[in-house]
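Student: Please help interpret what follows.
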Amino acid sequence: MIFCGAAKSLSMGISFINVLYGNTHQDIIGLLLLPLIIYQAVQLIIGAIEVTLLKKWIKNKLKNQIHMNIQLQNQDESETININR
């Protein structure tokens, strides 16, 4: 979902601008496309940053879950040892 907006904004924007202004205003089309292209580049850069942050977040969550599972297993083993004594 994060990358769908960046992929569609440029293709849809170019189509809409061509439909609205067509061949009558060639000079305006170039001016209207410039912010659209810059906006798409910014979306892609932000998406790349978000991917890095999401990967770190997921790795930390998985590391914490593994650490908690190991602690629970160690607690279970110590309880069974204490019961057997």
